[in-house]
Design brief:
elongated; Arc Repressor Mutant, subunit A; alpha+beta; 46% helix; four-stranded antiparallel sheet; 234 residues
Length: 234
Amino acid sequence: MEQFAERLAQTHAFGKLARAERIELARLAHRRQLDAGEFLCHQGEVWTHAIFVAAGQLRWAMLSPSGKEYMLYALEPGRVFWGHSFFDDEPMPASLQATQPTEVYVWHRDVILPIVDRNPVVWREITKALVATMRQAREIIYGLAFQPVAGRLAKLLLTQFPAPEKQSFERSITLHEIAARVASTPEVVSRVLHQFQAEGILEITRASITLNNRAALARVVESTDGAKKSDPKE
């Protein structure tokens, strides 16, 4: 319990609480283990909860009216997430789904709200977090709407190689999952990946992707961003 309370102290919102209140918050949390592919909440559901991601990863994905899925971002360990329904009792605009075995701690609104209401500074931190999430979603949606698939895929691949010394990573996500992240189809993603391979930018095997030319991949992103900015219709 105290170990979990210490992890809560590392978050922006709960770090503002007194130690005794963090321990109370930890005691009130409901621990859930999710299998890969299991949903924590569904788009269209009224879900009045907040969560702390302890291990694993959750994907925040939205279905369009035509049934096409768009993955907006992922929730990593240490992240606190507040369900939209928590604030307005309206349906969730997207779904939370585990991408791998995942452990989360869940609070219903009725449980956590009294603690938050006693600490106005926590509300300020929650507001900051929500604004940051909206800005993040705006950038993602902007990219999905205006950036070509090659640019979106190049940008995604660069996030998998955050440091120059990291040259390869295991293919832990499928083509379908990559396609959902870049708002495309598995077939198009496969073609673009093999185009990158033919140009010597990367190498693809069944188990991994190896980056050979980070600068070239970055130029793909820059060129597609530049084409968008120079579009006279914008």
